[in-house]
Design brief:
By secondary structure, this protein is α+β, with helices and mostly antiparallel strands. It is 64% helix and 16% strand. The chain is built from three helices and six strands, in the order H-H-H-E-E-E-E-E-E. The N and C termini lie far apart (141 Å). 11% of the residues are buried.
C-alpha cells in the first residue's frame, strides 16, 4: 500500500466517523420528536380511563335500578297475594249481613221457622269460618274504643256509667278487615 492509498483510506474512515458522529448528534432531535407522541398517548390514555370510569358508573347505576325494580315488583306481588280476596269479600259481606238479619227475626215458636233459622245459622257459621281462614276479621264491637281508621261514627249518644266517652255504644253495621286493610268500615254510634 502506498502512502497515498493509506491517506485516502484514512480520510474515508474519518469521513465515516464524522458521518456516524453526525448521526449521533441527530438522534436527540429524534428523541424530542418522540416526546410529542408520548404526551398524546398519555392524554389519550387519560381520556380512555375517564370514559371507562363513566361506563362503570353507568353500569353500577343500571344494576342499582334493576335491583330497585326487582324489590318493588316483589313487594307489589306480595301485596297482590295478600289482598287477592278483597273483591270477593266485598261481594260476600252483604250476604253475611242478610243472614245475620234473618237470624235476628223471632220465630214465635213456629217449628218450620226454627228449622230455617238453624239452617241459616249453620250457613252463616260456615261462611264466617271461610272468611276468617282468608284473613277477614270483623271490626267494631260494643264497648270498643272508637277507631276512626276502621269505624265510621254516624251518631253520638251521651256517655253513661257503662260506656265511657269515645267508646262504641251500638253497632249499626259490622266492619271488616282483610289482614290490616279495611274492607268496610263499621258504622257505629259513639258515646260522648
Amino acid at each position: 500500500m502506498s502512502k497515498e492509498e493509506a491517506q485516502t483510506k484514512a480520510q474515508e474512515e474519518a469521513t465515516e466517523t464524522e458521518a456516524v458522529q453526525g448521526d449521533l448528534v441527530d438522534e436527540p432531535v429524534e428523541e424530542a420528536s418522540t416526546e410529542e407522541p408520548a404526551v398524546e398517548a398519555d392524554s389519550a390514555l387519560a381520556a380512555a380511563q375517564e370514559a371507562l370510569q363513566e361506563k362503570e358508573d353507568a353500569l353500577l347505576r343500571a344494576q342499582a335500578e334493576i335491583q330497585n325494580i326487582q324489590t318493588r315488583n316483589a313487594r307489589e306481588l306480595a301485596n297482590i297475594r295478600k289482598y287477592d280476596g278483597q273483591k270477593l269479600a266485598e261481594a260476600i259481606l252483604p250476604v253475611v249481613d242478610n243472614l245475620e238479619r234473618a237470624l235476628a227475626i223471632e220465630s214465635d215458636g213456629d217449628a218450620q221457622v226454627d228449622q230455617v233459622q238453624k239452617g241459616v245459622a249453620i250457613t252463616l257459621k260456615t261462611l264466617k269460618t271461610a272468611l276468617e281462614q282468608q284473613g277477614i276479621q270483623p271490626v267494631g264491637q260494643v264497648g270498643e274504643a272508637f277507631d276512626p281508621n276502621s269505624m265510621q261514627g254516624v251518631q253520638t249518644v251521651p256517655a253513661t256509667d257503662d260506656l265511657a266517652a269515645d267508646q262504641v255504644a251500638e253497632v249499626l253495621q259490622k266492619g271488616y278487615l282483610l289482614h290490616d286493610r279495611v274492607i268496610r268500615p263499621a258504622m257505629v254510634v259513639v258515646a260522648q
